[in-house]
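Quick one:
INPUT:
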């Protein structure tokens, strides 16, 4: 990745899910080839990924025991990895992205909304970007003045045109 002025105005990282490999750009962040060596790296991206057993969730009419959430911050203290009770640890200024994939290749699932308490987000930073095949990645930036604490939030999924909502957690450290 080049480190010219344009790339220093955004953070790019790979999103791999549902067979999709692409680059997701989050505004207001900085990443170089060696982010730890860069004195200008201001935030660490956190990707929250859900694996959904769509067929069973539709049969049960529930996401309970049919959702498996992970994030890229296990080493940073996140807990509940691989469960429906994920608690992701974030810091002020961090970028967060949400993606989801069905466990069965032939089933369709997408994130249609993410509802995070406004007091911990930078103004107007929460948005979804739709890529090919109706695949949506949601992203936001944790506010520079976000108060430390635990926050519940909701993720609404579209499973074969049936909406289902789950509650996850962010811990601002």
């Amino acid at each position: 990745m080049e480190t010219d002025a344009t790339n220093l105005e955004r953070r790019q990282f790979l999103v791999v899910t549902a067979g999709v490999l692409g680059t997701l750009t989050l505004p207001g962040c900085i990443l170089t080839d060696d982010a730890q060596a860069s004195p200008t790296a201001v935030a660490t991206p956190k990707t929250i990924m859900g694996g959904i057993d769509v067929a069973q969730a539709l049969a049960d009419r529930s996401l309970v025991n049919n959702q498996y959430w992970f994030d890229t911050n296990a080493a940073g203290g996140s807990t509940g990895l691989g469960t429906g009770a994920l608690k992701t640890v974030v810091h002020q200024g961090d970028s967060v992205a949400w993606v989801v994939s069905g466990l069965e290749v032939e089933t369709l699932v997408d994130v249609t909304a993410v509802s995070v308490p406004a007091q911990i987000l930078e103004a107007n930073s929460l948005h979804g970007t739709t890529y090919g095949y109706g695949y949506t990645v949601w992203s936001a930036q944790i506010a520079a003045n976000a108060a430390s604490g635990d926050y519940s939030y909701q993720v609404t999924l579209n499973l074969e045109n049936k909406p289902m909502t789950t509650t996850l957690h962010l811990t601002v450290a």
